[in-house]
């Protein structure tokens, strides 16, 4: 018997019904979806909540749902602009993001996105993107030729650092190098400026001192926005450098996927922030030794 997924249970039995009677999230908020690998890897031994793979079949079904619900999938930069301006165009806006630069984005996700005329934003860890295929987390990553091909087709690219480290464990000198060097490499390969960054691993939102210093580094490096692993949708007044996203994987059935889009999953930010707060208190002493 499969384990009960409590986030799904509470979302569909409590959060979503409350939303239907006016107690849910603001419909004007922007959903930013967070994908990683589009593959058939079942990630044995990993609970549904923490899985990062979405099967090609499920991904295609989710994109079909977005299309049927009238969503327009735009780049991160465009999605934020529309949200700040209060514009929904002819439908509802969604931003589809992918982390890690896996090659299955090119082979599995890209054709589906083209089918529906959807844009997307892919964040690249540049140490694993080369002229020949390289591997990250035992998966093939895209080549620069594939990146350029998709850029010409309208896909937006951003930085996901150079080496994909746990930034919170590094000193700020090394963090600066990770965010500046990755940006420079992508700009050199694409011949244009890039303004988007994705924070790898859990974002330490409870450590305000670290977040403030980190955001300052992003601004100095010339970034305009940054997404994190914080859960939720984005409002027009939200900080563009600590943007929330909605994690998606193969375990998200249609009911849960639609509930996430509608804001019924935003409640997960509360327990997530509480857990991070405890971890921050425990790890703050270790962080202090890095600076």
Give an account of the 3D structure:
There is one protein chain. This protein is of the alpha/beta class and 291 residues long. The protein contains nine helices and twelve strands. The strands form three sheets. Strands 1, 4, 5, 6, 9, 10, 11 and 12 form an eight-stranded parallel β-sheet that branches. The chain has a two-stranded parallel sheet with strand order 2-3. α1 (6-23) crosses α8. The longest helix is centred in the last third of the chain and has 20 residues, at 269-288. It starts with 5 loop residues before the first helix and ends with a helix. It comes from Pedosphaera parvula (strain Ellin514). It is found in: Secreted. One of its GO terms (molecular function) is hydrolase activity, acting on carbon-nitrogen (but not peptide) bonds.
């Amino acid at each position: 018997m499969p384990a009960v997924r409590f986030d799904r249970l509470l979302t569909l039995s409590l959060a979503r019904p409350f939303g239907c009677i006016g107690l849910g999230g603001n419909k004007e908020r922007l959903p930013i979806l967070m994908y990683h690998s589009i593959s058939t890897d079942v990630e044995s031994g990993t609970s549904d909540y923490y899985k990062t793979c979405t099967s090609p079949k499920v991904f295609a079904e989710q994109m079909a749902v977005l299309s049927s619900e009238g969503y327009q999938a735009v780049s991160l930069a465009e999605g934020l602009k529309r949200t700040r301006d209060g514009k929904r165009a002819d439908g509802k806006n969604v931003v589809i993001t992918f982390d890690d630069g896996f090659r299955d984005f090119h082979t599995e996700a890209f054709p589906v996105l083209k089918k529906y005329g959807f844009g997307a934003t892919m964040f690249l860890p540049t140490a694993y993107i080369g002229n020949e295929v390289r591997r990250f987390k035992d998966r093939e990553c895209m080549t620069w030729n594939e990146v350029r091909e998709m850029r010409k087709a309208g896909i937006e690219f951003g930085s996901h650092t150079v080496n994909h480290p746990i930034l919170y464990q590094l000193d700020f000198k090394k963090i600066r190098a990770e965010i500046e060097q990755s940006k420079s490499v992508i700009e050199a390969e694409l011949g244009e400026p890039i303004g988007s960054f994705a924070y790898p691993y859990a974002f330490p939102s409870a450590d305000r001192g670290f977040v403030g210093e980190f955001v300052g580094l992003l601004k100095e490096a010339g970034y305009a926005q940054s997404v994190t692993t914080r859960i939720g949708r984005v409002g027009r007044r939200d900080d563009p450098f600590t943007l929330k996203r909605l994690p998606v994987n193969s375990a998200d059935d249609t009911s849960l996927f639609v509930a996430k889009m509608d804001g019924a999953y935003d409640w997960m930010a509360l327990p997530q922030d509480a857990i991070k707060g405890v971890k921050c208190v425990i790890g703050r002493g270790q962080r202090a030794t890095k600076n």
